[in-house]
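Hey,

The postdoc asked me to send both predictions to you directly instead of through the lab channel. I've kept everything plain text so nothing gets mangled by the mail client. Protein one:
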Amino acid sequence: MNSRRQITNHAEGIKVEQNLNTSNNEEIKNGQQLTDHDPEIQDKLTVTVLNDNESDKQQQMMLADVDIRGSFAKEFNPLGLQLNGAKTLDQNEVAIALKDFDNTKDNHMGQNRRVVEDFIQEGILNTRNTFNDILADIGPIVGYASEPLLPLYKACAPLNGIIQNILFYVQSALEETSEQPLDGLTIDESAAIRLYTIEWEGSHQSLYSKLNYTLKTASREELRPYFKYLKLFVTALAKLPCTPPSNIWRGVTKDLSAQFPPNTPVTWWSFTSCTTTLTVLENNIYLGKTGNRTLFSVEAINGRSIRAHSHFNSEDEVLLLPGTHMVVQSRLDAAPDLHIIHLKQVIPEEVLLEPPFEGALLYPKTG
């Protein structure tokens, strides 16, 4: 192993044991095969637990929350239907378009569980709507930018007691990272993105799951242990070019349309994974073709393509930054159980995510 990637016996005294003990005492073979498999976790699915019932804080809803990105005009909408509120759509036309779409082939997002956010937590979840946090008393994400830019293993040291086996996965991410990463990133910056994309095996929650849950539901003080990692991670993302403006599709197996009337401001506080292929919707393991479903069609302006730095480097994944702020443009009942909400991303009037370094551009240049 390259010495630069060794994270054992360093100055902080952090040591990654070569043989990790899992809850079912199986061995890790070849440093990659992880055990302690949770029967609740399937190869292509993780779920979001959201509690939208204000009258019953004990109720937990497991929602398959899928992020989909693609060309609506070419893939989802072969009839050229418009969702900008300027036209009332004919329901029969929409039904035909959806039927045609159902006949599309499977996509290649099956191995990426991050397109379905995982917020399964013990205990009672915060009951507010985690899809629209604009009214939540959370506050902007600030303070992390003043942290020093550290190597990945040092940046993750404060998380050692929070995220199970974090240092093992740090080492794995570094081992997967190219000696010369693309986009002008350093090895540690590229590995920070890769670490975010790795799915923990077994019953333990992945870094992305714990981080996003904290971003959406906890006080900013509880986010502090993540500051050093956020400094490295957001620095890496800020160095990537913004993807060209286009529609991002995000779905959830629940009717949320009543919560998003036109002109409603919407803020998503977590990192949001998206995909450039829309055909993921056809798979029953995600939204499927029946049952209550809500699609968020987002006109995104500052997504980052992380394919070159992802553990899943065969997938065209795009990531939205925390504090993505949008306004509801329109709502459409495309079918009795399928609801489409058109969102348009806007630059917020106040800073919701502090830039990671001076001169960092979180949004594309204008003018």
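Protein two:
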Amino acid sequence: MQSNFKILVVDDDPQILYGTVRLLKQDGYDVIEAPTGHQAIKTAKQHIPDLILLDNVLPDIDGLEVCRRLKAEKKTCDIFVCMISGIKILSEDQAEGIETGADDYIVRPVGNRELLARVAMMRRLINSEKKLKKHLEQLEELVEQRTTALRASEEKYRLIVKNQTDLVVKVDLEGKFLFASPSYCKLFGKTEDDLIGNTFMPLVHEDDQEITAKAMKNLYRPPYKAYIEQRAMTKDGWRWIGWMDTSILDQNGNVTEIIGVGRDIDERKKAELEKDKLQAQLNQSQRLESLGNMAGGIVHEFNNILSIIIGNNELVMEDLPEWSPSRESCEEIHLAGLRAINTVKQLLTFSKQDDSVKKPIEIRSVVKESLELIRSTTPTNIEIRATLSPDCLPILGDATQINQILINLCSNAMDALPISGGIIDIELRNFEIDHCNGVSAHKSAPGKYIKLMVRDNGSGISQEILDRIFEPYFTTKDVGKGSGIGLAVVHGIVENHGGSIVCESTKDKGTLFTILIPAHEGTVEEESHKTDMLFGNGERILYVDDEPAIAKLGKCHLEALGYDAFSTTDPKDALEMIKAEPDQFDLIISDMAMPNIPGDQLIAQIRSINPEMPTMICSGYSSRMSETKASKMGIRAFVMKPLKKAELAKKIRAVLDNGKQLSSNS
């Protein structure tokens, strides 16, 4: 019953004191209160609560001093004290609190639900300690009753201990075994004769020896008790043991021996460690989600800028004669823009907002084309050797993303090579997994795969960080030498293609990345490489974008393509135009991310006025819009920013021509 559990709440803030007391009483606890440090000490001595929730900042003496005085007195030293701080405290401050005897810390602000959960956890711990204390007190009482005749009752004591399922040991002041219960000997696979005269410390894990030694020092001063959790080498390997140690005093009050009662807590500790691991994963997931959203926002702004740069550059190039010296500069701008688009795609992939469409592709051709690009930018002292099997099966994927995999892995390999150069080997071939030869490292299901391997003879990756290389923003490179998202992007693309990636590396010998991507049994359609610009026939098109430069650029592109173009930066103006004359436009193109009325809502309102109006939507980034979502909304086409004139012309022509076909069939 919680009503049997008494809590003393100490706080000088009347509102906090009243709220905390009321909350705990509502949860069934027996609650008493004190507004000052001196009153808290007096109340604690009178009522001996099970738990004290002690504010650190009090008007007379601070919480640390209150805790110190309570822990110094025999009557109150066993009371569980939880310090409460109203500000974020440093680990040194927590250490000072622990040194004064505080058993736990709570940092405000803390919600009611969390406070009740923490109190419930402390109640369970206190009740467990009471049970253990009661058990130990029974043993102590037995020892105290026979202090003058300890030797005579030794055999009787042994019989009692031998019947205990808990581990019981007795050691001298040097930690040498004087006694070990049968349960202890059984767990550690030793006889009592093996242990007597030897110290227990060699059985303790080296990482826990220091904390064990510090805890043992508490046994030489009141309350002459210490609880220790440590890993010990049992016959079955390392296991967590929880020890409640108690000192035996002689008639002069000097510690002569120490009795330890232990319990195997390995399962509990593993559960706690797993909980901590899951919490860390949750924190990492939330951090990455936040970073992904931030990256997506950056992409939106960056794509708008790229649209202006690339679009206006295209307009300039159209007006330049072939012999103009300025064309070379424009070409450089165009290539830089394409590289920027590639960077944007990586950010979209990382933020999991890439809406690329997968289709059957000949991966060998994609890899071959990628290698041509990579070789053209590779230093002459680096040799790239490729072995591409001619009979590689197709995959269901995105060629741009496969290209990105190869670029990122080769870039990573080049960074690992010394200044003098080195070798990068690339291999592509079919690979099959059946039930007999399953590749455990890849955890891939039986079936046909394409195996892509990228190997270098560079510096390699140390085993300490090998498990972290696919974490976003994790990098061992110097500041400015790498963003830390390259391998994370590769990992995301591979997973997005239903594949797996494994890294094997030896320090100073090189690294091997092995990727398995499921093969596709279907046929690959030949892509048309026709680049002729598709022009309009004077159709009236309204272009809506809140960015004035992009709205102007869109209008210029449309006019250059032979359309009667209009533009506006205000979606409300677009609505008013449609309301005034619903059939005045043949097509409406809208940006997605706009203030007041987002593009999808604008199109929905336009379609409520004129359901037959053909529409297109553009986006530099939006978690709310994709090609699939656009199609479900009745939007005829989705265009990813930055806008490219040829792609825009092709999409517009497809929408308008399809609309004519639908009209002729109706």
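Summary for protein two, as requested: The longest helix spans residues 266-319.

Thanks,
C.
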